[in-house]
Input
Amino acid sequence: MRRRWINWTRPKLSRRDLGILSSAVIISAVFLFGVLVEYREIRKTPAHSWSQEVQGDCGVVLTGGAGRVREGLDLLVRGSIRKLIISGVNPLAQWEQIFPQWPLYLDLSMDDIVLERKSLTTFGNAQQSLLLAQQLGCQSLVLITSQTHLRRAQATFLEDSKLPIYGRAVRNASAEDDALEIFVEAVKYVFYDLWAF
Output
């Protein structure tokens, strides 16, 4: 029995195809480099809560992580801010579900807290919260979110605002060095940098 050898030949690429392939490789390399730079910057973000004091006119909490709402309320109790906007609240959620420890905060009034229920993204958080801040007469903002999210959130808010914005990072709910979470945030930052900032 004779063996038939299959002749695998490399397909020939036209100059146009080579140009497209080269461009794709260069763009991918630049994108990956940007992601790696942002990954490094995100890892350097310190947790500010309990280590640094901050003062601002109003606070904005971006929902989505443990400890953020409590940090905002603690700033309100200490008088570090006068009003608190909690942005990205589920439209169906009741206050008791959002923050069950509310009865422990006897010195606070719900008049000082605004629940923003329209936004679904960081970009939406910025748009909706800045409108509310303007209506409340805020002259500066303290932005409260996680260590991982703070860099992109602050850049997004600064893009749409002329107000001074001070970042307040709460320690991540997951492990401090969750590499995958930081990598995903770095990818989001690069995309936001290209289209939103």
Q: What stands out?
A: The two ends are 68 Å apart (CA to CA).
